[in-house]
Amino acid sequence: MPRFAAIAMLVALIAALVAAPASAGAPGPQPVQLSLGDSLAAGVGAGDPDSEGYVAQFHDYLTNTLDPNTKLVNLGISGATADDLANDKHPLKKAVKTLQHRNVEVVTIDIGGNDLFGAVTDPASGCLPDPSTPECQAAIGQTLADIGADLTVILGSLRAADPDVQIIVMLYHNTIANPEACALAGLAPFADAVLLPAFNGVIAGVAGAFGADLATPAVDVANLVDCLHPNAAGYSQIRDAFIDAYEG
């Protein structure tokens, strides 16, 4: 074969390879589960938080149904408040960078419970033993307003970083309902009738403003191990609520 003909064929072959579409079997970018929150996101109360917390259990679900290589980035911090997350630039800044530079499939978040629990148990609020006092009502009202403002900062930052990512925000169950595990169980009816509807209403309102979905856990009283946390079975029930929101 003449040399110029061989060169022409080689050039044509290279051009064809460059123009050819990528193989349908080529793997895409690794999907990421990004989770933020407080001690619930950290799995406190489970025997092994790293495997039995709701974040870890939801990650197991994604690796089984979405992609076995799904990466978990868990920024949950035990004791964190909505104020912490909105104003502590490290976790929120890291979340924003993750959204900007990684293939985030879903963001899960629980936050605000420590803010409200702290307000109710603060001696200065006057909520104990009678949460119906005007002082307590004022303290709760201010705390809910603050949570709403903080959650607006948090969800606004996440949504600005990725306008299309699915964000799932947890509504709160009654964490103080187990009289065998929580000394505040006597306030459980007040929490059901007053605190939780108002608290979850704030969360739902802000979540809706940023196109976020809601996870609504139903945690059995027997699965509550203290005034804030469930056991592994309770975390499974929280996981199920996130799965419902993810699939819905």
Descriptive report:
This protein is α/β, with parallel strands linked by helices. The protein has helices spanning 3-19, 39-42, 49-52, 54-65, 82-87, 89-101, 113-121, 134-161, 188-209, 232-247, and strands at residues 31-37, 71-74, 103-110, 166-170, 213-215. A five-stranded parallel β-sheet has the order 2-1-3-4-5, sandwiched between helices. Strand 4 (166-170), helix 9 and strand 5 (213-215) form a beta-alpha-beta unit. The model is unreliable at 4-8 and 10-24 (pLDDT under 50).
> Main beta sheet, described?
5 strands, parallel
Content-based structural category = alpha/beta
Determine and state the CATH class. Answer: Alpha Beta
**Mean pLDDT over the full residue set:** 92
The parts where pLDDT drops under 50 for at least 5 residues are 4-8, 10-24
Give the topology string: H per helix, E per strand.
HEHHHEHHEHHEHEH
Instruction: Give, in spatial order, the strands making up the sheet with the most strands.
Output: 2-1-3-4-5
Overall number of strands: 5
Tell me the β content: 5-15%
Count of helices? 10
Tell me the number of structural domains: 1
> Which bin fits the share of residues in helices?
40-55%
CATH fold category name: Rossmann fold
First and last CA, distance: 63 Å
- Approximate shape: globular
CATH architecture: 3-Layer(aba) Sandwich
Quaternary structure state of the chains depicted: single chain
